[in-house]
Amino acid sequence: MVTALPELVPFITLWSGERRPRVPVVVRHGGIAYPRERPGDRDRFGVLWQRMVSCPGQGRPNFGAVHARRQRTAMLRLLCQVCGGPSDRTGEGVLWLVPTATLDDEPDPLITAEPPVCAPCAARAVQACPGLRRGYAALRVREFRPAAVRGALYVPGDCAPVQVQAAGIALDDPRIRWVRAGQLLMGLHRYTPATLHTL
Ligand SMILES: [Zn+2]
After folding, report:
1. Distance 89 CA to ligand 1 centre (A)
2. Of the N and C termini of the chain, which has fewer Cβ atoms inside 10 Å?
3. Which residues pair with 148 in a beta bridge?
4. How far is the CA of 4 from the centre of ligand 1 (A)?
5. Cα–ligand 1 centroid distance for 60 (angstroms)
6. Is 188 in contact with 102 (CB distance < 8 Å)?
7. With contact defined as beta carbons under 8 Å apart, do 119 and 95 qualify?
8. pTM score, whole prediction
9. Does residue 88 contact residue 82 with C-beta atoms inside 8 Å?
């Protein structure tokens, strides 16, 4: 997640008032499920998601954590992860800030948990935090699609499914039916470097 700006809590940041209800999972149809599923428990890919209370602004921001629903919404609707408005889009593509370390091997696709950003937020972020310039690279992305989720992976147990690890699981991996997702990961396929000071 892009570092917080002074007096600005990013749209996707989790607040201490946003507790995750403890909901057990059961085995159903060769995967995990909630005993009584509600609309919104699964996404368009059929993946089960962590239930979360949504009340941004309540309590204290936890800058190291993201709110599952807002992160997924920002990713799918291409909202700026900082202000929640539309992300920046030009003929060159949608604006993304990604950790520079993820670019080392020129991955194709580049898999990221970072939703895109708008130009003012990207410029403010870099101005407010020079470290961002070193830690993050700006990209214009022309082609992207949901690739995976990050969440809790379960295996069948004697009485109930057992959580074994936190994992990133591709949407086409059969284990996707055994994940309770907390973040959507996007695959960035065609991207070019963008220069932040020209935004
Ligand atoms: Zn913004």
Report:
1. 12
2. C
3. 170, 185
4. 12
5. 21
6. no
7. yes
8. 0.90
9. no
Pairing of strands 93-99, 89-90: antiparallel
Whole-angstrom distance, CA of residue 103 vs CA of residue 78 = 21
d(CA 162, CA 180): 12
Residue 67 has pLDDT above 60, yes or no: yes
Q: Position 154: which residue type?
A: Y
Look at strands 48-49 and 179-193 and give their pairing. parallel
Dump pLDDT digits (tens) for 107-140.
Answer: 889 999 999 999 999 988 877 666 666 778 899 9
Distance 138 CA to ligand 1 centre (A): 14
Could you tell me the distance, in angstroms and rounded to a whole number, from the CA of residue 157 to the centre of ligand 1?
Answer: 44
CA of 182 to the centre of ligand 1 (A): 22
pLDDT digits (tens, 9 = 90+) for 137-147: 899 999 999 99
Asked if 176 and 170 touch (Cβ cutoff 8 Å), the reply is yes
Q: Which two tokens stand for residue 116?
A: 């895109």
Compute, in angstroms, the gap from residue 15 CA to the centroid of ligand 1.
19
Please identify which residue in the block is written with the tokens 């309540």.
58
- 142, 112, 130, 137: which is closest to 196 by C-alpha? 137
Q: How high is the pLDDT of residue 8?
A: 78
- The amino acid at residue 181 is A
